[in-house]
């Protein structure tokens, strides 16, 4: 039966198989096995997701559109960051920097398989795609490539968001067109831009994560997520290199952060301190260059490809006071986190197989997990701690570099590296 299904999948009559080249048959068979893996992973993840519906608020309830919340039983909210998928045309798009004996056949489908695999392992409440979701130069149809790149999150009915990188707009859609297509896709909380203001870029928005259902903070955002368009390339002739976060975006961020803090520290259930915030965008800030092997967790295997000017957004975040960590992509061979003036600056590491990498160095994803504290009354309260780790696309889907990014009343600490599930 399996062979009949395989024959149907590759479109080759059984009677003619012996006339085709051995390599083509092997490639078709491996692609078919990969398809079965994707379907199997999707089915299991949907079952797991449904089982957790009573615990998490990842899928907004009726009448609470776009509302995310912490788990009622676990007190946890988990975010999966996927950076630099570089998706193009699917099965016909080859991989970069992969040893021949590492994968006999490799394409965009391996990227898709990794998305399913890591979602199945982590069961996140939100998936964040941080740019270069498609590789425009090799994507013949941007809409189709975008649909395929985000397909796992959509198929599994997971809340997801995306920001743009520097390659997303290089196919058949403009930068605005790419973001407009994204915000119209199922299950996304992405937004084109905040309404009523003039702002640079496309994909500047915030998402609130409310307290656990039934808790005193159920109607307040206890974790604030900021998403920004870090641009693609400089449009100023005298300034070379990549784009940057502009003053208009920083003004929006400042106002949004200030409003959220005032709301959180106002009645009812007034809190003493601001809720922690996390920021996601694509291109690293110049401050990422402040670290070396003595003061970060992870690896730095290439230079920091930040803008050639410093637009001051790091200082803006420090002044705002609520952002505890920043997460970017862009430099695929860097996956470190380093702390600077109270803010953790983190890379995710390269995810996609059509993106440049390093042969023998596994593609990876970053996971962030925030936990609530218990009050003296035994109810869920504010966020107590935020930690992170990475998942590798290796045989064991290894977990590495677990790190406490922030904890209430603490500067955070490193934990012992471990491998495996």
Describe this structure in words.
It contains 8 helices and 13 strands. The chain has 421 residues and is an alpha/beta fold. The chain has a 7-stranded mixed sheet with strand order 1-5-6-7-8-10-9, with helices on one face. A 6-stranded mixed sheet has the order 4-3-2-11-12-13, with helices on one face. Strand 12 and strand 13 form a beta hairpin. The longest helix has 31 residues. The chain is globular.
List the helices and strands and how they pair.
Blueprint: H1 2-10, H2 22-52, E1 68-69, E2 76-82, H3 108-122, E3 126-130, H4 142-149, H5 151-155, E4 160-163, H6 175-183, E5 205-210, E6 221-227, H7 247-264, E7 277-280, H8 313-320, E8 323-328, E9 337-340, E10 343-347, E11 364-374, E12 380-392, E13 399-407
Parallel strand pairs: 1-5, 2-3, 3-4, 6-7, 7-8, 8-10
Antiparallel strand pairs: 2-11, 5-6, 9-10, 11-12, 12-13
Helix pairs in contact: 2-3, 7-8
């Amino acid at each position: 039966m399996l062979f009949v299904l395989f024959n149907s999948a590759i479109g080759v009559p059984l009677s003619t198989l012996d006339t085709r080249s051995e390599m083509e048959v092997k490639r078709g068979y491996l692609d078919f096995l990969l398809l079965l893996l994707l379907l199997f992973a999707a089915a299991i993840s949907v079952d797991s997701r449904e089982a957790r519906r009573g615990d998490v608020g990842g899928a907004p309830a009726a009448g609470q559109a776009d509302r995310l919340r912490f788990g009622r039983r676990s007190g946890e909210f988990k975010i999966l960051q996927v950076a630099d998928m570089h998706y193009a045309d699917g099965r016909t798009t080859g991989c970069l920097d992969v040893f021949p004996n590492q994968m006999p056949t490799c394409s965009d489908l391996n990227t898709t398989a990794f998305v399913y695999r890591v979602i199945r392992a982590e069961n996140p409440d939100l998936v964040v795609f941080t740019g270069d979701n498609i590789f425009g130069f090799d994507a013949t149809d941007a809409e189709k490539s975008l649909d395929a790149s985000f397909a796992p999150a959509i198929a599994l009915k997971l809340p997801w968001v995306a920001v743009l990188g520097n390659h997303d707009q290089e196919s058949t859609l403009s930068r605005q067109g790419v973001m407009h297509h994204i915000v119209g896709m199922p299950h996304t909380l992405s937004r084109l831009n905040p309404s009523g203001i003039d702002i640079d870029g496309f994909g500047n928005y915030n998402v609130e994560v409310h307290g656990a259902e039934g808790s005193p903070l159920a109607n307040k955002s206890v974790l604030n997520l900021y998403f920004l368009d870090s641009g693609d390339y400089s449009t100023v002739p005298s300034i070379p290199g990549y784009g940057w976060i502009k003053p208009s975006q920083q003004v929006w961020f400042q106002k949004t952060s200030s409003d959220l803090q005032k709301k959180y520290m106002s009645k009812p259930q007034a809190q003493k301190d601001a809720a922690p915030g996390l920021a996601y965008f694509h291109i690293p800030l110049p401050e990422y260059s402040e670290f070396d092997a003595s003061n970060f967790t992870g690896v730095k295997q290439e230079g920091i490809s930040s803008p050639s000017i410093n637009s001051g957004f790091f200082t803006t975040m420090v002044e705002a006071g609520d952002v505890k960590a920043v997460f970017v992509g862009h430099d695929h061979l860097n996956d470190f986190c380093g702390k600077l003036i109270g803010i953790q600056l983190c890379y995710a590491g390269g995810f996609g197989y059509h993106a440049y990498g390093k042969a023998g160095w596994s593609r990876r994803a970053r996971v962030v997990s925030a936990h609530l504290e218990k009050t003296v009354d035994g109810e869920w309260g504010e966020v107590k701690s935020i930690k992170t780790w990475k998942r590798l696309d290796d045989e064991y889907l290894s977990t590495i570099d677990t790190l406490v990014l922030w904890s209430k009343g603490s500067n955070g600490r490193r934990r012992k590296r471990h491998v495996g599930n």
